[in-house]
Amino acid sequence: MTTTLPTAPTAPAATMPRVRRSTRASWVGLAVAVPLTVVLALAPYYLDRGSQGSLVSLFSLVVMASMWNLLAGYGGMVSIGQQAYIGIGAYALVYLTSTAGLGPFVAVPVTMVLAGLVAIPISFLAFRLSGGYFAIGTWVIAEVARLVIVQFDSLGAGAGTSLMAFNDLTPGRRIAYVYWLGLAGVVLAVLVTYLLMRSRVGLGFTAIRDDDLAAASLGVRVTRSKRLVFVVAAMGTALAGAMVAASTLRVQPDSVFALNWTALMIFIVVIGGIGTVEGPIIGAIVLFALQQWLADLGTWYLIILGAVAIVITLFLPRGLWGLVSGNGRVRMFPVGYRLLAPAGRGVTARGEAGSAAPPAERP
Amino acid sequence: MIWVNALVQGVLLGGLYALLAAGLSLMFGVMRIVNLAHGTLALGAAYLGYVLVDSTGVSPFVALVVVVPVMAVVGYTIQWGLLNRALAMGGLAPLLATFGVAIVLAQLLQETFSADSRTLQVGTIGIRSFSIGDDIFVGWLQLIILGAGIAVIVGLQLFLSRTGTGRAMRACSDDVETARLMGIDSRHMYAVAASLAIATVGLAGMFQGMRTQFAPASGDMLLIFAFEAVIIGGLGSLWGTLLGAVTLGVAQVVGAQVDPSYGVLIGHLVFLSVLAFRPTGLLPKMVTA
Amino acid sequence: MSLLEIDAIDVHYGDFQALFGFGMRLCEGETLAIIGANGAGKSTLLKTLAGQLWPTAGTIRFAGDDISRVPDHRRVSRGIALTPEGRRIFRSLTVEENLRVGGYRRRPGPWDLRSVYEAFPLVADRRTRLGANLSGGEAQAVAIGRALMSNPRLLLLDEVSLGLAPVAIAEVYAALPAITANGTTVLLVEQDVNHALQVADRLQCLLEGRVVLEGTPDSVSRDDIAAAYFGISEEHA
Q1: Cβ–Cβ of A2/C232 closer than 8 Å?
Q2: How many angstroms separate the CA atoms of B136 and B152, rounded?
Q3: Digits of tens for pLDDT over chain C (237 positions)?
Q4: Domain residues for A257?
């Protein structure tokens, strides 16, 4: 009794599925983002100083949140110690502009590089831990950073220090310059996140998230990718710290190294949508609106925020952006790959690789 | 001889840290949850004790009888209502959920009690001590706390290794799907583990309140110290947690003897050294997957 | 009177359907073997009986009660025990502790620590050894003993021969008569057809989620089984 094996059908080239990266929504996103950035750039000419200051706050929140999202949403590393780099960024800016004599706008990139250099040895320590213990470990490191810096009288010890770099400028100019610094920071942070995750590193991360070992066996450099993200996040967070110092002009250890910064980052990202480029932006705007709206309630707004974050973690894991975008179908920042069925098949494309979904593991 | 006294004080302090860390270690051991709200919950217990002592005038030791069972119920409820769901969601959810609880609880405590420091008045037992030789002083309260710390660790260890429920918990920790096939309700087991963990943390919080002042912001350091004790000692081993706690206590007190502002920092540095040179800890039992 | 009645169940893993209208009747005291190749749906069936999966259509009746949607941890007290695929021994527990956990929800019956040790001397020798340090054959014996500790009415054995040396497989099957002698109903799932046929009263062969052959070891020929197992039929000749 002979059996004939079925032969695989060879599809003619014209009906092979196509792989595309951008979507209609992403072109819309681009069409909106570019003019918006231009409009924002012109703000010092039509907004008063208070509004500019508020926007700088918003920008620094977006930067911080994007960096935390890079670590946790893409890299799978939850850190509750990012305030270490806010502090390092703030203090570095003060030190570089006063003792090292650099101009403030040169000092900012140098601050970022310094933070990155510090992050490298820290990563070797921190990576010994994983999961929740990694999280607390990063916090201990932040505490050590604070305790070490407080030992230096030249940096103001426990009382803190002031940023003198802008003393020659008029307030109007200073605020405008800080504003442009903030805007540049936001654009940089969002772009870096987007480009990193669109690249092979990003694709590697979606594999790492599902299965470390399998990813490594395919040639994904797991530890190196994680270290890269860790260092980039440190640099971006230090930028946010420099922005904070530049706008408040006062750097105190208990405030720049406060856990509160990380709490804000986490709440923003969780509410906005973890693991997406759009999420931190949405979340920061929501937080900002809540801060204004609930300003009379004092610290109650933090309680409400925390409660909302818990509820969203448990019931809406993809956050507000997940809700709006139909769980990843609409992407203004195209980081994934879409598989389009060949014409004439009548099948709608479903494959979406490279979407940075929150990982679902079983306990 | 002051160094020997510092060593002794460090060991006594280690007792408190062991009490504090036991619950953290248990929750991680059974459910792989790192409870970021651990320190704040300890603080919550201290405040609960404070309210009881303040309103009824009883001694904090009597208040313990109420606070510890209440914390056990709190632990069960948080696990059942919140964390079991977070575990089912998987991924970052448990960590984010406990972080949220920590922040919300800390803020609530601040709103209710303001940022002022309080303490639980225990009377003379908090000051009385006996001396060994000329230079070594052992405070009675500290000794009681050390005793409680050791008792809790031993008790938990015996519970896990000798009782049916403890065995069931360990089975859940190894393989929860198969444990359920044995008829073990994992959700209930997790809640029981959490209730034990939070009850011990309540005890720790009360003792901390008796020992020293506390304020809403103190919760942070409690979590950090508990965590450092667990890591120094080695994951997966309650005896390791005890050893780690004592090591941390000694490091902090000896460090403070060198210079009062160095105490906590030296503790952190010892922790970081263990992380750098012996990352599995002093007495590791668990291979973390 | 049937102990187990499965009525046209469908079982899905997400979008993927593993069982199509599966039906079966099992009488108390019988030993039924379900054979089939990888992916045929055998383990899915046992997982559904153990409550780890719920059928998307159809019903399962055990001792007259509808248990289709009873949670997994409640099935042991009703008398259903599963020896899972791959043994799934608790690694940080000793052999004796593994057995005791099996008895967490004991029903009254002949099986306890002592009788399990008598039936499986291999297990008795290893009672203080950690679950992580057992060989495949030892682990399989412990897994079966663990399931017996609850005194089940229905014992489900999922691929007990998988990954074991022939000697170990023979030992495992040699212990089976002691189990069925007590009146326990056994539903065993196997890729190893020979051993399955030795112990089974009846057999069913699954292919891609459907029953393609039913009978007793005497009434079906090896050729019939091979054809059903691999899905080869006359049309392909």
Answers
A1: no
A2: 26
A3: 689 999 999 999 888 899 999 999 999 999 999 998 877 888 899 999 999 999 999 999 999 999 999 999 999 999 999 999 989 999 999 999 999 999 999 999 999 999 999 989 889 999 999 999 999 889 999 999 999 999 999 999 999 988 888 888 888 898 888 899 888 999 999 888 888 888 999 999 988 888 888 899 888 888 888 888 887 765 444
A4: 16-353
CA distance C110 to A167: 89
Residues of C with CB under 8 A from a CB of B: 50, 52, 71-77, 81-82, 84, 88, 90-93, 97, 100-102, 104-105, 131, 146, 150
Is this prediction's pTM over 0.90? no
Is residue A11 situated within a structural domain?
A: no
CB contact under 8 A, B103 and A360: no
Q: Nearest chain C Cα to B29, which residue? A: C92
Cβ of A313 within 8 Å of Cβ of B33? The answer is: no
Report residue C201 as tokens: 């009263």
A252: left (phi over 0), alpha (psi -120 to 50) or beta: beta
> CB of B207 within 8 A of CB of B16?
yes
Give CA–CA dist A248/A47, Å, rounded. Answer: 19
Q: Which residues of A touch C232 (CB under 8 A)?
A: 1, 3
CB pairs under 8 A between B and C: 68
Count of CB contacts below 8 A, A vs B? 136
Helix or strand run (H / E) with residue A246:
helix A222-248
Does any CB of chain C come closer than 8 Å to the CB of residue A360? no
H or E segment at B131? strand B129-132
Report if residue A197 sits inside a domain.
yes
**One-character DSSP codes across chain C:** -EEEEEEEEEEEETTEEEEEEEEEEEETT-EEEEEE-TTSSHHHHHHHHHTSS--SEEEEEETTEE-TT--GGGHHHHTEEEE-TT----TTSBHHHHHHHHTTTPPSSS-SHHHHHHH-HHHHHTTTSBGGG--HHHHHHHHHHHHHTT--SEEEEE-TTTT--HHHHHHHHHHHHHHHHTT-EEEEEES-HHHHHHH-SEEEEEETTEEEEEE-TTTS-HHHHHHHHHT--GGG-
Residue B96 lies in a domain: yes
Contact C101 B175 (CB under 8 A): no
Please, are residues B194 and B28 in contact by the beta-carbon 8 Å criterion? no
For chain B, how many structural domains are there in total?
1
Question: CATH no. for residue A286?
Answer: 1.10.3470
Which residues in chain C touch residue A2, judged by CB atoms under 8 angstroms apart? 237
Looking at the structure of chain A, the number of domains it has is: 1
Amino acid found at C204: Q
Cα nearest neighbour of C232 on chain A: A3
Nearest residue of chain B to residue A123 (CA atoms): B276
Q: How far apart are the first and last CA of chain A?
A: 51
Enumerate the residues of chain B whose CB falls inside 8 A of the CB of residue C71.
180
Residues of chain C found within 8 Å of residue A1, distances taken between Cβ atoms: 232, 234, 236-237
- Contact residues on chain C for B178, CB-CB shorter than 8 A: 84, 88, 90
Give domain status of residue A361, yes or no: no
C114 has a chain A CB within 8 A of its CB: no
- Answer whether A299 sits within 8 Å of B111, measured CB to CB: yes
Instruction: Give per-residue burial for A188-211: e unless 16+ CB within 10 Å, then b.
Output: bbbebbbebbbeebbbbbbbbbee
Q: Does C1 touch chain A (CB under 8 A)?
A: no
ipTM: 0.90
* A29 within some domain: yes
Tell me the residue range of the domain where B67 lies: 20-217
Asked if residue B93 is part of any domain, the answer here is yes
Q: What domains can be seen in chain C, in order of their start residue?
A: 2-236 (3.40.50.300)
Q: Neighbours of A (≥3 Cβ pairs closer than 8 A)?
A: B, C
